[in-house]
Structure formats: structure tokens, C-alpha cells
């Protein structure tokens, strides 16, 4: 069980790190090489296309990470609380809305040369769900105790997501997005570093059966 849990937590950690890096590149490259006019008109479609694609892929990585965080708790036989499970649903829905946002923006840029303004409703609503979902997930993983250190990235990410939709003036909006992307990288590091040790500690403290019992070789009986 420990071996499988540790392997899965490392994989989940890589998904979170990949999502954070993709999100960081998506808006970071545009800061160095602007691809849009202030009114939204795209100046460089060749650069804009991979940037919006990276945003959508990053959000897919976030949804996969949240699903796997729930699965890790089930595998450790310490399922998330009701609040934690609600956080999973909200965070996944928010990430999905951002994937739809990326698709809608990409299509409308091809057709009209600029993003459809209504698509930013998906952006704002998606982040709102990620805010609430992140707060609930932080409480859920904190109470479960299997990956307690993961609570902080969820909470800081929720605060950064709220700032991203509350403040659209530069440079604060970009700073909030950078912090948000960084929290997923931090979450991935926590999952990669603490996955196996956390479940072992949780088992020692809670005394639950079957959570982290190491594999033992089965010896054949001695002949009499």
C-alpha cells in the first residue's frame, strides 16, 4: 500500500507542477512579448495560439491533480470529509470552465481576430469556484491528516485566485496570477516529497488498519 500510494502521489505531484508551469508560461511570455492590443485585438496569432492552449492544458492538469488528491485519500483509507469532497467538485468545475474559456477564446480569435468578451464570464466564474473549492479542499486535507502540508497551497491559491478576479489593474493582476500558479507548483512539491511519509505518519497516529502497512515477503513453511 505504501509503495503504491507513494508512486501515485509522485505522479500527482508532477501533474500539479506541470499545470503551474504551463499557467506561468501562458501569461508570463505575454508580459515579455505582448500579443494583444489593449482592446483585445490579437497582434501575433502564431504566439497567441500556444499561449491560450497552455492555459487550457494547465487547467486540465489542475483538475487531474484535484481528482488524484481525492483518490490518494481513498487509497490511504482516510477519505476526505464532506467539505473536502465538495471542494473537489467545485475546483474541478472551475478548472473545466477555464478549459472552456481557453477553447472559446481560441475559436473567437480565429473567427474575429479578438476574444469574445462574454468568454471572460467563464474566466471569472471559474476562478470564483476555484476560490471556494480551494478553501474547502484546504480544510478537507488538513482534517484528514494524510497530506496535511497540502492545505497551505490550497488556501494561498484560493486567496490569489480571488485577487486575480478582484483586481484587473497591472501589475497586481499579473502578480496574483503568478502567485496562483506558484501555489500549484508548491502543491506538487508537497505531494512528491511528503506522499509516502505522510501516510505512514497518519497511520501511526490514527492506528487505522491497512493504510500504510509495508509489503512483506511471504516465507514458505519449513518442512517438518
Report on this model:
Helices cover 76% and strands 0% of the residues. It is mostly helical and 224 residues long. It has one domain (2-199): Rhopdopsin 7-helix transmembrane proteins. The longest helix is centred in the C-terminal third of the chain and has 35 residues, at 172-206. The model is unreliable at 1-5 and 198-224 (pLDDT under 50).
What layout of secondary structure does this protein have?
Elements lengths: L1 H31 L12 H31 L6 H31 L6 H26 L6 H16 L5 H35 L18
Describe the structure concisely.
With 224 residues, the protein is an all-alpha fold. The chain has helices spanning 2-32, 45-75, 82-112, 119-144, 151-166, 172-206. The protein has six helices and no strands.
Features:
224 residues; disordered N terminus; mainly alpha; 6 helices
CATH architecture: Up-down Bundle
Briefly note the structural class of the backbone: mainly alpha
CATH topology: Rhopdopsin 7-helix transmembrane proteins
What Rg is obtained from the alpha carbons, in whole angstroms? Answer: 20 Å
Which residue ranges are poorly predicted, with pLDDT under 50 across at least 5 consecutive positions? 1-5, 198-224
Proportion of strand residues: under 5%
DSSP strand tally: 0
Arithmetic mean pLDDT: 83
Main β-sheet, in a few words?
none
**What is the highest CATH level, the class?**
Mainly Alpha
Query: How far do the termini sit from each other?
Result: 33 Å
Give the helix tally: 6
Query: How does the overall form come out from the CA principal axes?
Result: elongated
User: How helix-rich are the residues, as a percent range?
Assistant: over 70%
Order of helices and strands: HHHHHH
Structural domains: how many: 1
